[in-house]
Write a structure and sequence with these properties.
alpha+beta, single chain, Transferase(Phosphotransferase), domain 1, elongated, 577 residues, 13 helices, six-stranded antiparallel β-sheet, four-stranded antiparallel β-sheet
Length: 577
């Protein structure tokens, strides 16, 4: 859950916060519209993995236009399933914060690969080997073509156009994978932000096609133009359209004029065939370009096959390690450290498991990218007319309002103390025995006239689910009563009270948790294995038995002097889950 610390603004997210089943670990990138975090996904039976979480910046969280763009990205990207497109797993909302859960790729953007060791805005790129760069862009072509071919449920093509293809949005993995990301300003038929008003342009100016820069209608060939610019920059270290100080008006004028130097003007001996591919992709007339990104991919792969040895993902990954490997490794180690801290918090003190640890922006590690996965400025908004869903409270309270009568008996017993919950298991025809020390006998029934008025009933019964590692062979004891095998839920303590839960398993150390009203609904409890078995438990060598002794029944073991464990008590499942 999002923390509610004083002074926290609407839509703010901090490391340590919980968004659904995702625990925020670290901010890794930020652009003009959104921020990307490394997060821990919590699953069943102790499962966890790292994912990327994308959230709208707090200052834009209440802007309906940005919210619609965010939802459009989820609709478009979630429908594209291709090895060269960053996968979208989930769209959620927590306390008014919209978020996207995405595939985590251990690597860096092509923009950072071209500027190794620097995060300075305006720093000149360092060109890649021409064949290596061609392979990276060919892979990006494959991902974009998959997006361009996206269809609706009826098989009609949606005519998706990314409109923000740039080195910042081409992700290169440590394993050499290449993925297109950030469909935040993508255009598709039927999308709420499809229409762009006059004078409002979406995308980054240095990578726009002439029709996009001029505010005219765009199609997939506009993305082909942007791919040509990316390949131009990656192989020359220079942008074909640039201006002092990044003046966007001057850059747009250059794009509309179609005047730029060919790649060979910057790099002596530049491959002629590769230059022709770039010039075709960057033709002013869309009809003179490659008709699809797939055709551009084919042209690049054919040139690669003719020009030298095969370029594989291994070569791409090795180049990434050479240039920015230290940045990737530092971030990876930091995330592993945060994952270990998260596990320790859950094991030691569930109450503090997912509380906000404050804004760590004052000490941002050097590996956090300043490159925008989404970099749409306020001047680039579209005026979509379809309203997006506004923030709404959780519906859980509303669902349980209608079951108050059915739960009245449970809550009345709960008012007698949490021992009363375990009396529910004895409501059967043959009640199970309960230790006298565990559950006190109920007080004598007072006359009706002297009976106090019943306490107000709560709207719902809440439980805490305890997931243990290992999952099997673990015995749970709650307030002195052992839960039946397979039961791992206990009632949430009332505000101001604390209840003790003990987990035991053969070969593991006993673990104790103190549960209270603020404990998360799901707690992961990891038991530590014993270092060595106790000497008293070591089996003794038995003397050799005669055949007659084998025929005798084995003697019964002596009863342990230890106090017998409480009898398991059946806790019924909540029938309203």
């Amino acid at each position: 859950m999002i923390g509610s610390a004083p002074g926290r603004g609407f839509g703010e997210v901090h490391p340590g916060d919980r968004l659904g089943r995702y625990e925020i670990l670290l901010a890794v990138a930020q652009g003009g519209m959104a921020r990307v975090w490394a997060a821990k996904q919590h699953g069943q039976r102790g499962f966890s993995k790292v994912v990327a979480i994308k959230t709208i910046l707090p200052n834009l969280a209440e802007d309906e236009t940005f919210e619609r763009m965010f939802l459009d990205e989820a609709r478009v990207a979630a429908g594209v399933h291709h090895p060269n497109v960053c996968e979208i797993f989930d769209l959620g909302e927590e306390d008014g914060v919209l978020y996207l859960a995405m595939e985590w790729v251990e690597g860096e953007s092509l923009a950072r690969v071209l500027k190794p060791g620097t995060g300075v805005e305006g720093a000149l790129p360092q060109r890649l080997n021409a064949r290596l760069a061609a392979k990276i862009i060919a892979e990006a072509c494959g991902g974009l073509h998959a997006a361009h071919e996206l269809t609706d449920d009826h098989g009609h093509r949606l005519d998706v156009v990314h409109r923000d293809v740039s080195p910042q949005n081409i992700l290169v993995g440590s394993n050499g994978s290449v993925k297109v990301m950030d469909f935040g300003v993508a255009k598709a038929l039927g999308m709420s932000t499809e229409t762009t008003s006059a004078g409002q342009i979406k995308g980054k100016a240095p990578y726009m096609s002439p029709e996009q820069a001029g505010g005219r209608k765009v199609d997939r060939r506009s993305d082909v133009f942007a791919l040509g610019i990316c390949l131009y920059e990656a192989t020359t270290g220079k942008r074909p359209f640039s201006a002092p100080g990044g003046n966007q008006i001057q850059i747009i004028k250059q794009i509309l004029s179609g005047q730029f130097e060919p790649p060979s003007a910057h790099v002596p001996g530049y491959p002629h065939e590769l230059e022709q591919i770039i010039l075709k992709a960057m033709a002013m007339d869309p009809f003179q370009r490659f008709a699809t990104a797939d055709r551009m991919k084919t042209a690049l792969e054919e040139w690669l096959a003719r020009s030298g040895p095969v370029i594989t993902q291994t070569h791409i990954g090795a180049e990434l390690q050479t240039r920015v490997g230290h940045i990737v490794s530092e971030r990876q180690e930091h995330i592993k450290h945060l994952m270990r801290q998260s596990l320790a918090r859950v094991t030691a003190s569930p109450r503090d498991s997912f509380q906000s640890v404050g804004d760590q922006s004052a000490s941002v590690p050097s590996f956090i990218r300043n490159v925008a996965p989404t970099s749409t400025s306020g001047a680039e908004l579209s005026q979509g007319a379809i309203s997006a869903p506004r923030k709404r409270p959780s519906a859980m309270g509303t669902v349980f309002m209608g079951v108050g009568i059915g739960l009245g008996a449970f809550l009345l017993i709960g008012g007698l103390g949490f021992g009363g919950w375990y009396l529910l298991g004895g409501s059967k025809a043959t009640p199970e025995p309960v230790a006298a020390a565990t559950v006190a006998p109920p007080p004598a029934t007072a006359p009706s006239a002297a009976r106090p008025a019943p306490a107000p009933m709560a709207a719902s019964v809440e439980y805490i689910t305890v997931r243990t590692v290992p999952a099997d062979g673990v015995s749970l004891e709650f307030e002195g009563s052992v839960l039946k095998p397979g039961v791992n839920r206990v009632p949430r303590p009332l505000p101001g009270s604390t209840r003790k839960l003990i987990a035991r398993a053969d070969g593991y150390e006993e673990q104790t948790l103190n549960l209270d009203s603020e404990t998360p609904s799901t707690v992961d409890l990891v038991l530590s294995a014993n270092a060595a078995p106790a000497k008293a438990e070591e089996p003794k060598a038995a003397p050799t038995a005669t055949p007659e002794e084998h025929a005798k029944p084995a003697p019964k073991p002596e009863k342990s002097a230890e106090k017998p464990k409480p009898t398991p008590v059946d806790i019924p499942d909540n029938p309203f889950d």
